[in-house]
Amino acid sequence: MMELMKRICPDSPYVWNQEGVSECFDNLVLGLGVNIVTVVIVAVLGITTRHQKERRRIPLSAKILFYLLPTIGLCFAFLDMAVLIRRRLNAYPIAYHEWLFSFSQFSFWAIVILVATSETRLVVLCNRVLCFWWIAKLFLLIPRLQIVFSSPGVLRWLKESCVAITDMLFGILINIIRIKWAAHGSSYFLNSSSMEESLLPCKMEVKEDCLTDLGIVGNVWRLMTFKSIDPVMQRGMKKQLDFEDLLQLPSDMDPLFCHNILLSCWNAQRTNTVTHPSLFKAIYSAYGWPYFCLGLLKVLNDCLGFAGPILLNKLIHFLQKGSREANGYFLAISLGLISVLKSFLDTQYTLHLSKLRLKLRSSISTVIYRKCLCVSLAERSPFSEGEIQTFMSIDADRIVNLCNSVHDMWSLPLQIGIALFLLYQQVKFAFLSGVAIIILLIPVNKWIANRIANATKNMMEQKDERIGKTAELLTYIRTLKMYGWELLFAKWLMKTRSSEVAYLSTRKYLDAWCVFFWATTPTLFSLFTFGLYTMLGHQLDAATVFTCLALFNNLISPLNSFPWVINGLIDAAISTRRLSKYLFCYEIETGPSLSFLSLSDEKLDYGDTTVVLRDASCTWSSSNEEEFDLVLKHINLCVPKGFLVAVIGEVGSGKSSLLNLILREMRLVNGSIYSSGTTAYVPQVPWLLSGTIRENILFGKDYDHKRYSEILQACALDLDISLMIGGDMAYIGEKGVNLSGGQRARLALARAIYQGSNIYLLDDVLSAVDAHVACSILQNAILGTLLNQKTRILCTHNIQQAISLADMVVVMDKGHMKCVGSPSDPSVASYISFLSVNDFNTFSEEGKKEKISNVIEETLEKDLDVDCISSSSQAQDIIEVETRKDGRVEPTVYKNYAAFSGWFITILTCLSAILMQATRNGNDLWLSFWVDTTGSNQNKYSTTFYLIILCVFCLVNSCLTLVRAFAFAFGGLRAAVRVHDKLIQILINAPVSFFDQTPSGRILNRLSSDLYTIDDSLPFILNILLANFVGLLGIAVVLSYVQVVFMLLLLPFWYIYRKLQFYYRSTSRELRRLDSVSRSPLYASFTETLNGSPTIRAFKSLDHFFFRFTQHMLLYQRTSYTEIFASLWLSLRLQLLAACIVSFVAVMAIVGSHGLLPVSLGTPGLVGLALSYASPIVSLLGSFLTSFTETEKEMVSVERVLQYMDIPQEELMGENSLDPTWPLHGEIQFQNVTLRYMPSLPPALRDVSFTVAGGTQVGIVGRTGAGKSSILNAVFRLNPICGGRIIVDGINIAGVPVRDLRSRIAVVPQSPFLFEGSLRANLDPFQVTSDDKIWNTLEKCCVREEVEAAGGLDIHVQESGTSFSVGQRQLLCLARALLKSSKVLFLDECTANVDSQTASKLQKVIVTECRSTTVITIAHRISTVLIMDNILILDQGILVEQGNPHILLQNESSRFFSFARASTM
Q: Alpha-carbon distance 1426 to 771, whole Å?
């Protein structure tokens, strides 16, 4: 046996040698043995499965690889045998173990090819046993590669590397097919594979044996080189890009497809984990496998990154020997080829990772939106609107960053481990000194990571609060300006922002420490490693030093990235927990198509009954809250089909809550709800879409012209629409800002009627319109042919008009159902008479039916019918299209950002970065000098001297790194604070017209997403850009100094580089701007849906709105997808360009060592330095332009914010200084006042003149849109008048400072406004009134009992005042106005949403409390103006009538008489 082994392994140890496993053992055991085992497994599987016929077809790409990879392996094996035969013929001794291994390798691949061509190829090669063995076999390649790389032959280790890669790729191929087969079944093989689809452009068909169009090779090349983006970039060079120019998304990236995948996985999580389902596990289930496959590609890419330092080591050794063999040229060219291969792998990994990121972003965004649609108001109550908006704008992005962070979490330690192993081979155990530094930094980084996690969590909470307050500020800006509270609100907002910035600064400064530690680690690593190495008695040479420097450079990226990866994982974990909590909320109902089905709690036959409530009790608290207050208690109601039900009661009695209970928006605590058929809902505060009038009415339904026209006429909208520019295609602004309150209400009613539902829930739809229109709507719409067979539940305060005609009356009182019956029932009739005893009743009941018909006739014929367009009027282009600049980002944008940061900090940061790079280059040059002097035996200095100079460089570099890190953090924070503060200041000083023409979602996008970029992303990418720039500058200087020939390459290189970046940047800027523009509709649509979700659920329009959102998401995804392709197009070309530079420097070094150039290229130390500096150019060049373009993209956020720095401002200053007691008398004079909301529109007020004496009470009456609210707008200077004068107490208000003017006049707005905070802050924000006075005022306003029951003045008012009913909110707003004690009080329909009895009490309060106050009341209720001293009647902006109301009532031809008569119907 021993003799046989000696013959087989004559010159090699049997198992071990000094460097590890012997070559004989490797060939016989790890080579021959492994091949024999593989052949045996294949043979056994082939025999046992020979009768199984393969019925599955594999994709063409898999079939090609099945043939191609074994063929390549067979060719290499044949080449190896040919080389051995040639050596044998040339009399070279060949060991038997080499013959055996080579023959076994050839036989092994031949058998694999034979099986791959058989019918049972999949059954054999994709068998579980063989797949597992192949993965294990790959690990046995490591000892062989170690032996090969330690040998001097370049061609040998290149060949063995290719063989190993072929073996590995084939193993990955069969494992992927097996796992895909197990996951998807035979459908994977019958359909075109995902791999094949990714290689094909859109609409290209796949056939079994061939591809149309370019074929597989052409499509692979097209994908690898990103040629698909060429048409987009060519158009980007010639013109401004539009959305139709973008690339089409692959089918698996469609938002609906992505949504369904994640939603199914999340539902599975909810089913399996009842209490705490994990969103992270759901994401893993949805995208775990493709993400794992990407990890395999990343392993290969990361390992390939270390081929450069290994080749560099061999090249420098070659130069030191002074050899003239051709191996040097092979090494030099191999450096470039490795760079080329890594460029392709790197860009492909980035492409597929980015596609996965887009899928995940689309999935999360659509799932959040769907949740918003499906969660009731009660279940949503624990989350504020700002918090839910943050889920969409920020948390979704942080979770998407998991795609990078999870792979980096294992990849970075792997890269560090490989680098340390290679360092050990160079400097033995001296590298442990560098490892000790890393180990010492681990607890420091853990502490920093924990602090960053806490700061991030707190910062997100403050951000939620800030965005919520910002949204509140933007929503109610008109009301805030009338109150003069915009500065107060801005102050509160700044306070929240300060808390947010405090946590942000903690994060930034901790990040600065991270940057410092990880940026200085390579330098310290170098110092300690080389210092210990020389102290151990070793001598430094060029190969060791510069190989180590190259490895140090490879360490920089993973070391610097690691803290950011940890931060990203922490942020994602926090956001995942936050989002999981929201997604776990109970849904009203879910379904595969988001259909909204009626809920039946009891399976009983109710016959013709449409709504049944049995002992129902409900609350506004969510299911997770154990403590709750019942809002409605023990409600029993049975509504027959076709009934008109009038729900009445005092303010806060529970009328609106009853409708919300039927809609399932409230949490049912006890009892049951039954409803049959479809439902339509008109809320008390109408919710409108940003879109045309027709879109609002159709609400996703098909257009039926006849029905559409009938509904417009029934809702008295036909004449309004006929006066609008564009007709029913006129664009409605956000929340209907360019419509009057009555027009909004009628539009919401028309939308409900058009749906053709079975049940109509109408929440006080008549209060916002005047008496004529209310009477018309009641007769033609609610009681007309369109709805007379429908079930209608109407909450109302218009008792005389609606209640007497109802089939059933429900009386609510403090959450209880007091009585139910027809209007003639004694209990109901007595209550109605009690409520209406104080209401206005001029006409007798006799002949009322006749008068109704007369009034309806007049309503349709008289000129009073015509509604003019009020409050900003309507135009198709009333909402300005969001502007985007074209061309490059202007230098002024960078200049402005630098100014925000501070010029001193900017200069200090740049200077410290340049000096930091200079000291680092000086450190490397000193090492080069060291190895040259010691290598030439001309050492004039001791080792200690070299180490001291090295220490000085290291110390100075560390100090400069610290200065740069903290200067950057400070400058970024200062810019963030200044940008936000200035933007808020400019916005609160902007006129109301700006907010009318700009959707709040667009503004909120600036204050959330764009500001987050300025806070966090922009400083981060700027820091990277600066580091890359100074790094490239240092490399260019050193290479020019070391290799003079390199300067010949600079000019053509710079020319190509400039051409590439110019070609790319012109497209990239446009894509970034398109990205910002496409993002705004997402936020606007989400905010809009958040506000109107009850209406959407009631109309069962979830599918329609979900489709709209997915279309917005599709456009956003296409923009991002095109951006990614453009970025990778550039990255690949830059890396290929850098590979040429590496090859040039390496080849010139070889040429110079052969003495073929007239100039010397320096000592071995300098040549080694040049080569070590040329290697990182591959990544640094791509990183520089990527960071530059990313910076330019992020600068678009600054550009977008700067656009709002130039918006028009109100004229805040005035020439008249006011007396503290002004206005003393309250006299108001209008002298020929004309008001236009836009220059292109007709006047809202036309030459209006009147005088209101001080201390008198005046009512303003008119049809909806007649210009009543325009009087208020003119007095408060919300819109500037274009003619005439307004004089208050002898002073022209045009010369009064606008905030002083508004602060001296009290107002109760048409839409009641309460902000989130304490009730005391809502009533007395400046804290100047005592509690006793507040309580007395609340009692006078009939709301004290409700406030006491709720918990007093310190109760927390929810967002938008939802803690109270709409009527209670109006009473609180009245109390707020009375507390102001102004001599002028405006009441804008403040009693529209309260019952008649409460309205009567309030009128008495106003009469008694405001005896010396000028009170101007805009009202639809005639009873509220009868007690006034004077009334003004407006029509189409013209004052058509004025006088004492009692005198006008006696004149039957007067306009006021017709209004009064209509109000009694």
A: 14
Residue showing tokens 């019952």: 1395
Helices (H) and strands (E) in the chain, counts: 54, 25
d(CA 109, CA 114): 9
The answer to whether 325 and 438 are in contact (CB under 8 A) is no
Q: How far apart are the first and last CA of the chain?
A: 120
Query: Phi then psi for 1280, rounded to 5 degrees?
Result: -70, 140
Task: Please name which of 983, 879, 958 lies closest in space to residue 1203, comparing C-alpha atoms.
Answer: 983
- HSE of 833 in the Cβ direction (CA atoms, 13 Å)? 8
| Cα distance between residue 1177 and residue 1035, in whole Å | 8
452-464: buried (b, 16+ CB within 10 Å) or exposed (e) per residue?
Answer: bbebbbbbbbbbb
* Beta carbons within 10 angstroms of residue 516's beta carbon: 18
Bridge-partner residues for 1430, per DSSP?
A: 1258
Q: What is the pLDDT of residues 67-98, one digit of tens each?
A: 788 888 888 888 888 888 877 777 676 777 77
**pTM (two decimals):** 0.66
Residue 907: beta bridge partners?
Answer: none
733: three-class secondary structure by DSSP: coil
CB of 289 closer than 8 Å to CB of 183: yes
- Would you list the DSSP string of 1262-1273? ESTTSSHHHHHH
Residue in the structure block whose two tokens are 């009322």: 848
CA 817/CA 820 separation, integer angstroms: 7
Helical H segments across 375-430, by residue range: 377-380, 385-390, 396-400, 402-427
Cβ contacts of 483 within 8 Å, gap of 6 or more: 1302, 1307
Task: Take residue 2 and report the two structure tokens written for it.
Answer: 């021993």
CA distance 34 to 139: 11
For residues 1243 and 1235, the answer to whether their CB atoms sit within 8 Å is: yes
Amino acid at 983: L
pLDDT per residue as tens digits for the range 1011-1062: 888 888 888 888 888 988 998 888 888 888 877 777 777 778 778 877 887 7
Which tokens go with 48?
């046992």
CB 1298 within 8 A of CB 1218: no
Is the separation of the CB atoms in 1274 and 1336 below 8 Å?
no
**Residue 289 CB-density burial (10 A; 0-12 exposed, 13-18 middle, 19+ buried):** middle
Q: Are strands 644-649 and 791-795 parallel, antiparallel or unpaired?
A: parallel
Cα–Cα dist 1227/1291, whole Å: 10
Residue type, 1263: R
559 contacts: CB under 8 Å, gap ≥ 6: 416, 438, 518, 521, 522
pLDDT of residue 904: 92
Q: What is the CA radius of gyration of the chain?
A: 39
User: Among 158-162, 810-814, 877-881, 1271-1275, where is mean pLDDT lowest?
Assistant: 877-881
- Record the tokens describing residue 933, joined without a space: 């002097």
Identify whether the C-beta of residue 62 lies closer than 8 Å to the C-beta of residue 195: yes
Question: 46 CB contacts (<8 Å, ≥6 apart)?
Answer: 115, 118, 120, 124
Is the peptide bond between 1223 and the residue preceding it cis, with omega within 30 degrees of 0? yes
Q: Look up tokens 């190829």; give the residue.
A: 121
| Half-sphere exposure for 171 (CA within 13 Å, toward CB) | 20
The token pair at 1297 is: 């400072």
Residue 208: the pLDDT is: 35
- Report in angstroms the alpha-carbon separations of 390 from 398, 468, 926, 1087: 11, 9, 52, 11
Give the pLDDT confidence of 773-788 residue by residue, as tens digits: 888 888 888 888 888 8
- Can you give the three-state secondary structure of 1004-1056, one letter per residue? HHHHHHHHHHHHHHHHHHHHHHHHHHHHHHHHHHHHHHHCCCHHHHHHHHHHH
Q: Are strands 644-649 and 691-692 parallel, antiparallel or unpaired?
A: unpaired
